[in-house]
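quick one before i forget lol
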Amino acid sequence: MRRTRLAALAVSVALVAPELAYWVGARACPAPVPSKGCGVLVLGFPARRNGSPHPMQRHRVATAVEVMRRAGCETMVLSGGNPHSPRVEAAVMADLAREAGVPGDRLILEGGSRDTWENIRESLRFVQGWEAIYLVSDGLHAHRAKRYLCRQRPGLCGRARPAARYRFGELYPLKLAGGLHEARLALLDSFR
């Protein structure tokens, strides 16, 4: 009986912890505020093996479009190369942004990066003049991206704003895997 209760508790924690972590991460993101000099940087995620958009890419672009409209930003940088799929992540996400109504002349593609550190490094040249830099991803990844931006360019740190949205149950398997990945990286970062 006791083992059954412990197993039930362990399963409950495993199911609830990712949702709670992503909810807290998204709640910790400042709300977009209208600003003339802002821009949106969408962090990459691999497309599917056949080159079609991954649900996480759809999620990030939908969030970016929402932030862009709410804050009145003029430009969206889509960052990500093709380390895991045949199509460049930035190009796949740019197609989604155009489908959502963002004019192509307001999109900048950074297609050479292979991970979050490089997403930031390779996009810095596009975001330096922005008054507000919205870093769009999920509730945990966006905060890591801000930490990376602050390390790479401390002078821009005060302008960086993580941006994410949360919906209960949405992309749950990715939240579970992503939460473990972010926890591992946070632990490694604490030793740097």
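fyi The radius of gyration is 17 Å.
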